[in-house]
Amino acid sequence: MRSSGGRLLKDCRKSLSGRMGPLFLLLLFLHEAWGAMESRPNVVVLLVDDLGIGDPGCYGNATLRTPNIDRLAREGAKLTQHLAASPLCTPSRAAFMTGRYPIRSGMASYSRIGVFLFSACSGGLPSTEITFAKLLKKQGYSTALIGKWHLGMNCNNKSDFCHHPLSHGFDYFYGIPVTNLRDCKPGEGSVFILGCRLLVFIPLQIIGVALLTLEMCNCLRLFRVPHWVFFCLLFLAAIILVLLAVFHHYMRPLNCFLMRNHEITQQPMSYDNLTQRLTHEAIQFIQRSAEMPFLLVLSYLHVHTALFSSKDFAGKSQHGAYGDSTEEMDWSIGQVLNALDEMRLANKTLIYFSSDQGAHVEEVTSKGEMHGGSNGIYKGGKANNWEGGIRVPGILRWPGMIQAGQEIDEPTSNMDLFPTVAKLAGSPLPEDRIIDGRDLMPLLQGTSQRSDHEFLFHYCNSYLNAVRWHPQNGTSIWKAFFFTPKFNPEGSNGCFATHVCFCHGHYITHHHPPLLFDISKDPSEKNPLTLETEPRFHEVQQVLQEAVDRHKRTLAVVPNQLSLGNVLWKPWLQLCCPTSGLSCHCDTESQDPGVNR
To answer: Which CATH architecture group holds 44-181+256-577?
Structure first.
């Protein structure tokens, strides 16, 4: 009996073990998966609009107060040669989100208009593009974009949202679909009216010339032109003027609205405590996502014009409205850092701080007030590829993983964030496309002393403008320009007559051979090299040209998202508050008790 009982017990154990095996393996898998999720950092991206590299204190500014940006630099790594992939908002942000030159996704224009000006246009970041938000979402991250998008909205109708942030990997969106335009601030001009001048004033001029001709040459009698023709033309001109006035009154706020996901929450957008509201949304997202890895992109409306700040910051800086706006933005960064500290998430979070391109030097009011920032010692600014237009602040902080207080003087790109966060999140890079960004962690952690970017290509819209070469066995950083913008007035540091520099036609000067600089010795780009001043002149030019030829062979023909047909305003794509009629006015923001408006 004892032997029989032993065999029975042994059989029971074997049976139990067989049944528990799959459950044990499942628990083990879940434990390992949870551990992997725990080891992946949260990612907080702080992206400013039009902030110059000469604006933050940690980059040398002694009069603007940016204590929280400076804190990030002290506690992390400061990149001194961080470069935007484009000197304009839309293409720069497309490159930043995808890790690819904007020419590859069709987010580079062949005309003067290099960005999306209207929410109701059909162009945008193609659905075939993969953003780092898509990659992280697939790895279990909660994802949110707070603030500015500027990469399109709809394709064929106003509810398809094919270019919307929620179609590009973000779980949550609160912000503006285009950019911070003067339309939204009465008395500061209008993009809509500027566009209408082309569509309205030209017909008016034609009608005016026709009327004047009929009157001066007495054509009504001479050619027996019926009087009704004269009065019809006069009536048509009056109708056009009335329509323009109605359009200006009712349609001005069409670009100026806040959205939460797919719904408009405020139209027109109010600037009252707007920074506080955006900051509040960002902190709320952190709080509700704290248990799992998250990606937060806080894309500031600051410091793009129209400039704004709350009463706590207005008139407090040494640099007028621009300084007030910058210091309020820095305050917001401090609130995000405090929230991470309070929730004990700082050591689990990689923070990336940068600007989408250099400061807009042509932003000067009629009263002579500077509404653009500082690019420090660097030439040019927004919309051109002189260093002032593309060299931007770049700071990364991850306590315990990135050594605090270091400066990295190697060429890096805003496209590099894509492969960096993808690898940290455990996501493989897409294999069906070229990724131009490079993983930053070897540089940040000191396992590599050299940038993986031997060559970087600088586009002015869709035109290859310049190329940069950092030889792997040398210290020089060669930069060659194929053309440069014609600054106006002559001798100035920008294109003040046109407000931004253009990329083709009589607005540029071509250079044969290309204009060559050694950025390592001449970062201000004051002294172009010649064969007399640089013995390797022809050798360097040949290497750069060969690199350009190889790069061009990697480019595929793709639909141009910034074609004239894609950037024009399309009434059928216009989003408007559903119950507001023609006026497009609504405001549900005041219903949120969490924000003091």
So the answer is: 3-Layer(aba) Sandwich (3.40)
